From TrEMBL:
Family in the record: Belongs to the Mediator complex subunit 31 family.
One term under GO cellular component: mediator complex
Primary site of residence: nucleus
Record gene name: SOH1
Subcellular location: Nucleus
The name this protein goes by in its record: Mediator of RNA polymerase II transcription subunit 31
């Protein structure tokens, strides 16, 4: 038996080249290309904070497709407080989700002038947020 003043070294297990990696965590949610639906939707919704991306979606005519418009309506759950905390740019993202619910905005975001105005509002909003 070791005395109270004598410390014993912890046992170190050898790792060999043939040791398999630990198994991945078990998830009940299906994965799409290795990502959960939550991760994919978070990435997409975050991209909506960019006026240039909104213009790109309009140029592809996605904002006119009824299925895509329905998907944008479904994404409104990101406006709830428990989901807003995951957004990097909550203000512009939520604003874009609101604007995309309007048919007129979905048509007009194709215009460079509208995109420019959105970009100016975004810069002005970030400067106000920083206290300038």
């Amino acid at each position: 038996m070791a005395s109270p003043t004598t410390a014993t070294a912890p046992a170190i297990l050898p790792v060999t080249q043939s040791s398999p990696p630990p198994p991945p965590p078990i998830t009940l949610e299906p994965l799409y290309a290795g990502h959960t639906r939550f991760e994919l939707e978070l990435e997409f919704v975050s991209m909506l904070s960019s006026p240039l991306y909104l213009n790109h979606l309009a140029a592809l005519k996605l904002l006119q497709a009824p299925d895509f418009v329905a998907y944008l309506k479904y994404l409104q759950y990101w406006t709830r407080p428990e989901y807003i905390t995951f957004l990097s740019y909550p203000g512009p993202t939520i604003r874009a989700l609101e604007l995309l619910q309007e048919e007129r905005f979905r048509r007009e975001v194709l215009s460079p002038e509208v995109v420019g105005k959105l970009m100016q509002e975004g810069v002005r909003g970030s400067l106000e947020f920083q206290g300038r």
